[in-house]
Amino acid sequence: MEYRIYFIKLALIASLFLTGVKAKDIEFSIFELTTIAQKIYQNECSSRLDYLVYWNESECFASVGIGHFIWYPQLVNKKFDESFPKLLTFMKHQGVLMPQWLKESEFCPWDGKEEMEKDPRSNELREFLQQTISIQAFFMARRINKALPKILNATEDSRHGRITKMFNAVANEDSGYYLLIDYVNFKGEGVKKTERYNGKGWGLLQVLECMKDTINPKAEFARCAKKVLTQRVENSPKERNETKWLKGWFKRIDTYTK
What we know:
Order of helices and strands: HEEHEEEHHHHHHHHHH
Helix content: 55-70%
Shape: globular
Number of strands: 5
Largest sheet: 3 strands, antiparallel
Mean pLDDT: 87
């Protein structure tokens, strides 16, 4: 496939950008990002091509890419943070060559799972996403560089010290950035007011504020992640039946301590 050529170019470009580059005191090598990308691909897609473009029956959006980035159709209320258009914008800025229809897409072209699966473009999109895993990892790493400032900007000054301390405690652990990058792409920063049930959020902010001082920050992060996700399910609208997802979410969180 022609995308293979572009993927190789992108891997080289990403390595130039990432190896030894420092952004907000966070450094990633291309090896580290590739490792993180493969773990997230396993978490979100079971490393399966067909799951790179997916539509949950109870959702009003497509889940796209190794991070299952949200992509909404045009006439849908965007309750959750829509991340796939941001990835596309990032790819365009990096000079990624993509299918013309995708380059021109302002909104998700499908209104539901059945329509998506009947459209040959869904398979073309899967192939494109499989060949651009490096650049998707690059995009996710940039997001975590902005996560803490975004969280602090949305919270009172009195909470900043504790939040920063817990963030750094996890980041300083071996493979700690995998936890942070994965969780932010999994459940967001936790600052968006529409990402709440009964006023309770479930993002990185809520996990960090739940954490207590410990000699094992990764285990504490995992404990708190499970706690806020359980709270989310308990507060969720009954018609969404979010209980069905909790087991899979916990399985994902269990990778944080391995």
